[in-house]
Amino acid sequence: MRLDPLLTERLVKSLLWCFTGLTIFVLIFIITFISVKGLPQLSWTFLFHDIEDMGRTGGIFPTLVSTLYLTLIALLVASPLGVGSAIYLTEYTLEGWVTRLIRFGAECLAGVPSIILGLFGFVLFVIKLNFGWSMLSGGLSLAIMILPTIIRTSEEALKAVPKEYQDVCFSLGISKWQTITRVVLPCALPGIMTGIVLSIGRSIGETAVVLFTAGASLRTPTTLFDSGRSMAVHFYILAREGLSMPNAYGTAAILIISILLINITAYTLMQRFLQKYR
Amino acid sequence: MLTRERLIEKVLLLLALSAIGSLALITIFIFLEGLPIILKTGVRHFIFGAHWAPTKGHFGILAMILSSIYVTLGALIFGVPLALACAIVLAEFAPPSLTRILKPTIELLAGIPSVVYGFLGVVLLVPIIRGYLGGPGLSLLAAALILGIMILPTVISISIDAMNAVPTLYREGSIALGATQWQTVRKLVLPAARSGIITAIILGMGRAIGETMAVIMVAGNALSIPTSILDSVRTLTANIALELGYASGAHREALFATGIVLFIIIMILNTAATLIAGRK
Lengths: 278, 280
Hints:
The complex is a heterodimer.
Chain A: H1 5-38, H2 44-48, E1 51-52, E2 57-58, H3 61-92, H4 97-111, H5 114-128, H6 135-160, H7 163-171, H8 176-205, H9 208-213, H10 231-240, H11 245-277
Antiparallel strand pairs in A: 1-2
Chain B: H1 2-16, H2 18-41, H3 43-48, E1 52-53, E2 58-59, H4 62-93, H5 96-109, H6 114-133, H7 140-150, H8 152-164, H9 168-176, H10 181-192, H11 194-210, H12 213-219, H13 236-243, H14 249-278
Antiparallel strand pairs in B: 1-2
Helix pairs in contact in B: 2-14, 4-7, 4-8, 4-11, 5-8, 6-7, 6-12, 7-12, 8-11, 9-10, 11-14, 13-14
């Protein structure tokens, strides 16, 4: 027996719409649930006080500092490497085995699970180079994690800049490097920033990499070689050991909301940039 | 002037090698640390041995390999139908104005940290499973459900891109011949976007098998080969993360060896995804 195509059409469509509704509901629910439970916990003391009694009371100030510290190191290391890679890929070579190799490397690196990056950071930075569990080890490991994102978005941004701009520069006798730094990069900057902003979001939310390279010290880190726990690690420990549910919800709310705001910023930047060149 | 330009080019090439260089370093260090213990135990005993008691010198990771595979398959069973339905609706059926809002929203959700997913699993999902289905609650089923949700944004977003890449002209031809919208999707858009959709699923699979924090929190981490979906399981990733903190000597090497197995699985998946995506 064959079903009438129009009936099938209607059945399938309603089923697919139901699935879509469910998917979107689940995703929206996650954000709402955490915000409703977590936002009431937030207060001046929660944000700007030291962790007390392993996180049962007190605030999360040291974790804010650690998170900023780690993210900053990761960005300082990964941005030049990533943007440099992208400039080389788009401006200096033709498609060939070198570019294919570099792109393949970046794609594979993007797929490496965070626990493997954690293992690697642990053996190389913490043990072999003797940085210990520290901001430096954590930041460098995070830098490797965000490198592929920065390369990919920067490459797309550089490609979007019209070739005519460069032709004009060359016809005026301006050198290649000057063309890139004075014309191409400024034009591509919003697009490049998108990748960097997205990377900030990923660094803030990452747990496995940071746990094994930056440790989980409760103190506020000051030097590069101090250990410290990021917000995500703190949240993980609070939740896993059941130390304090209200504090766990509060930390989760800050994590999620800051990451969402960061990603929305990245998205808006990219939209503006694309509109300009379309 | 010319030499300066050449110098800049060389420096940029060096920077460009950073990604592949990091990948090489990761591979070298993981293998250097982990390979000796695999060779000492024997590849067969390591991979097919079911007994893991690292402090007593037993290094068999079969239970974890199987758990990782089951959890990942479970995630695909839950996640892929939802993701594909969502992608089809957003790419084909929904009015463009709705897609313009929903697609970025779904992509934003890819940024939610895995610990948050794990936490929600513990707080909401695990009690439901324990209450209605029995068992410890922390289980293969819980891990599969949470991972299924976690891979949604990845699979949806890449599938939508794949379907959007199918020229509108084809669809118009099909509709003009009297096909319904669903017939057009099933017979034309899906086959045409197949390689992109398969890539999306493989990448989702890679995400699921490599996920650590969410799985540790909801899977229960028991060291045995699961016989039911309500059993507590320990995946490869969880094994590394749980024991790395205190392991030393041969035990730590065995954790790196676990990492090697995971790394090889992921590399195979990535290469497959790259090959399929590049075939068009």
